[in-house]
Amino acid sequence: MKNYLKSHNNKMSVQSNLNNIASQIPKHVTLVAVSKTKPISDIMEAYNAGHRVFGENKVQEMAEKHEQMPKDIEWHMIGHLQRNKVKYMASFVNLIHGVDSFKLLKEINKQATKHDRIINCLLQIKIAEEDSKFGMKAEDTSNILSSKEFSELKNINITGVMGMATFTDDTNQIKKEFSFLKHTFDTLKPLKSFNFKPEVISMGMSGDFKLAIDCGSTMVRVGSSIFGSRNYSN
Ligand SMILES: *Cc1c(COP(=O)(O)O)cnc(C)c1O
Hints:
By secondary structure, this protein is an alpha/beta fold.
């Protein structure tokens, strides 16, 4: 049995962590509770406290959790996404944060059409200096959004952008990268159309969500500060 489907006895209180984070976030900012690797029992603690928005980074894990959990949960795919996995979540996913190519967007549109749905997506912009982080160049994004091919995708709705800052203690560096994402969002905004309705800037995690909000974030993705540190060894 997958570890994330087992129930552990977790002494730490997910609910009080959640309340603590929520109290630091203004009303206009959405909190995505990142539950990757965590068991359903932990996620249910957050659910029972009234939380409904959860983020996962693996399609299979998210699909299994979706299957077993209450159906009023909003599931966000926050991880790097392979095209061949889109079909496993197309029936229920609420927002896909990491769209980093037009090919992927086309596949999401295709699968959404099969389910007669419109799937919300964010374009992931590369803002970090590190090579390891995924994402599109800001200028490629504006080319996509203004293309004819994009206007033919009737079953997707781009609601904004997402970015991940460099993993560093250098606050100035992080601030620079978050500000760049906000700037990119502002630049793209005039390209608004029936399938590009810019509202969301998804940036900020446990270590930097306050800084991200100061830089204009409207959606933060917080995992370890709510559910505790993750154990990837099993
Ligand atoms: C895991 C993850 C997070 C949450 O990270 P924490 O530091 O645990 O808050 C946020 N965004 C993405 C894309 C992630 O993969």
